[in-house]
Amino acid sequence: MMNQLSIFAENQKGAMNRMTGLLNDAGINMIALLTNDSAEFGIVRMLVSDHRRACDVLSGAGYLCHIDKVIAVSISDEQGSLNRLLGTLTDSNINIDYLYMSYDREAATPIAVIHVADPYEVEELLQGHGYHAL
User: Fold this and answer.
1) Domain 70-133's class?
2) What is the pLDDT of residues 100-134, one digit of tens each?
């Protein structure tokens, strides 16, 4: 289980650069990043090396931040591995709110970052099917 930051930001030129600059200046490394936008605001979701400090830094700069639990699952780097993971969730009647991908630099494997209603239950289910949650 990992802690994910969700940051609400105005959809304007330079917004991402300001956020990443604040994190860089604070010595915080980004592990994964997903952005969703609308006409005026966007939601930036990220996994970082220090979620509490990142939230403090961004909040101090005026950003609205929220911390959520997500499941980060290591999968093999081969065709069909994500499909098999999703099949396990589908067969278990699990609804995925959203999913994005990252990469484990040390293990050299993809990571599926999954947000679900009950991450503790789903993490246990996936571990029971042989998946490794980070």
Assistant:
1) alpha beta
2) 999 988 888 999 999 999 999 999 999 999 999 98
CA distance 67 to 47: 10
> Is-contact 71 119, C-beta < 8 A?
yes
User: What's the angle, vertex CA 42, arms to CA 36 and CA 47, rounded to 5?
Assistant: 65
- Tokens matching residue 13: 């030129």
Helix (H, G, I), strand (E, B) or coil at 19: helix
Radius of gyration for the chain, computed over Cα atoms and rounded to the nearest angstrom: 16
- Give the end-to-end CA distance of the chain in Å, rounded to a whole number: 6
2-68 has which fold?
VC0802-like (3.30.2130)
Residue with tokens 């006409």: 39
* Coil vs helix vs strand at 3: strand
CA 97 to chain centre: 12
Considering the entire predicted model, what is its pTM?
A: 0.89
